[in-house]
Amino acid sequence: MIDDLDPEIAALLSSAESSASLDDSGLDEIEEVTSASFSASFNQPEIPVSSVRKTGSIHEVDLGQKTFTPITQLLSDTPTDVFNDTKYYKTVLTGENQSAQRVHQLLSKYLTCKDPKDRAVYRQQIVTAYWELLRGMVGKMTDINVPLPKKMLVRFGVILPSLFKQETKEFFSKIFLENKPQEPVLYIDEWFKEIASGRMNNSATDEKKQVKTANMTAEQVASAEQSRLMQLQSKNSGKLQSAENLLGIKENERNMLEIELKNRIDGLCEHNTVFGAEPHRAGYTEMQRKMLPEITDLLHRLSKNDKELSKVLLEYQEAKATYDNVQTKMDAAGGHAAVVTNDSEAIKIEFETVRQMAKMTIGRRGNQFPIFTREFYHCTEKGTGTRENVIEVLRWVESLDPGVFHRIHKNIPNRIVPYVLLVPTYGDRGFCWEPFDRYNRVTSRGRIVVPMYPKDLKIAVLTAVADLRWQVAKEKASYYWMEEGLTGQYYQHIEQMKMKGDLKEFFIEDYILWMTKESTGVQRLDKDVRGIFWRNMPFPKELKEDLRKRSLVYDELCKKDANREMSDGY
Q1: SS3 string of 165-216?
Q2: Termini Cα distance of the chain
Q3: Strand 406-409 to strand 412-415: parallel, antiparallel, or no bridges (unpaired)?
Q4: What is the pLDDT of residues 3-46, one digit of tens each?
Q5: What gap in Å lies between CA 439 and CA 232, rounded to an integer?
Q6: CA distances from 360 to 34, 77, 212 (A)
Q7: Among 108, 168, 239, 309, which is disulfide-ready with 319 (CB 3.0 to 4.6 Å)?
Q8: What is the pLDDT of residue 534?
Q9: Closest to 373 in 3D by CA, of 188, 157, 171
């Protein structure tokens, strides 16, 4: 087994050179940990999970924020030494259940095996064993004292640092561990931490287990009631936040109208002295006479604004009262104390969901190997799905598609960036798990998933964003999604073309062409699809003006825009 490892074994997880071997430190890590030492360490008691202080910063949607803040620094100037720790491997597996020993045995055989067929068998067995190991580890991510190597395993899939190339190890050592941008882009360990502490709800699933109250303990009943109140609070918070945002818009509109009215009246009340007929003053000038109907129009607009503002204010007061009432009940039941703990049931449910998410990023024919290794990692530094890199790609997406994260409520576009889960897989496609929270369709964040080690990070993010675009548009159109809006127009086009296949997949592929080719003036889309996207997912005005100079195709689309604006049909 481990004691039989030979430092001269060639081609350990190296696809580039058949003569390459693991460095001595990597071999020492595995050789040092014998079966006896593991059998003793696996049975160590687990560290109790402590409560987590609630910050809630990334969970509060700021409707006033219009774009992502540019990332000025992608990597840290002070790299961590965690991957140079000689006891990294032992620390990762110490204190875990029997699945750790299983992973240890299979990984040892996999690394030393020369027969390609046996190697393939061990590789497949590692997949199942690894996820069982992860099942027992994710609940510990709420513990502030959890060893950093365990966190790095969950976050990056790094179980053995010697499987890095040296330059890759240096790169991973410089990745920021903390969420400095304060955007809702989370690694897996952070995701489970937020779920366990109650700051995030479980990701939506088709089936939800029903627990009979009669079989529940008093503590479980209290927890269930707390969860019910949190759902009510989440549902109502969307109405409250939207009403407050709309109220602010109407108040600003009133202020602007009042300032304009005061300026008009001040100008109207100024009269010139009539020379030779002092102290009498002249009547209104031609300019002042024009102010009279303008003042009348301003008064009408103020009256309309007042009616709308009064209605919105009433809605806000009702939503605020409901919110305060639920909050009072939550405080009486112990506030968030009951949920800001390690919710093991929530973690179990979310673990199965995240495992499914990871599989979906890979696909049936993809590489399911869950452990980070230089054999399969071929990304550049900017092509790796770190938090900072993904935010920069999302910022690029939003610069070309400004409405990509907008959700319309009462004709007001609210910018709501979804939660982004970064999974350490060798997948190539991201996707949208849910367009918004089922309890709060107004201002809740949706959820998209992005693989960290894809062939092309930009394409992986674009597939996720396109999926989000499609699902939000489909939910907005509801029963009429095949007739109205973006989905309706696209569906009718596909029907006319008599194309067979997955409608959403067609849309995603066209969206990628729209963002990567059409945005640069390279015409790759069908004429009708280009028109649908141009109307429903318009580029910024500056880009439109630039494109119309490059081709008559885009110039024609700009002319159609102008015609629609003139006819008020845009």
Answers
A1: CHHHHHHHHCCCCCCCCCCCEEEHHHHHHHHHHCCCCCCCCCCCCCCCHHHC
A2: 71
A3: antiparallel
A4: 433 333 333 333 333 333 344 444 445 544 444 455 444 544 44
A5: 8
A6: 36, 35, 33
A7: 239
A8: 96
A9: 157
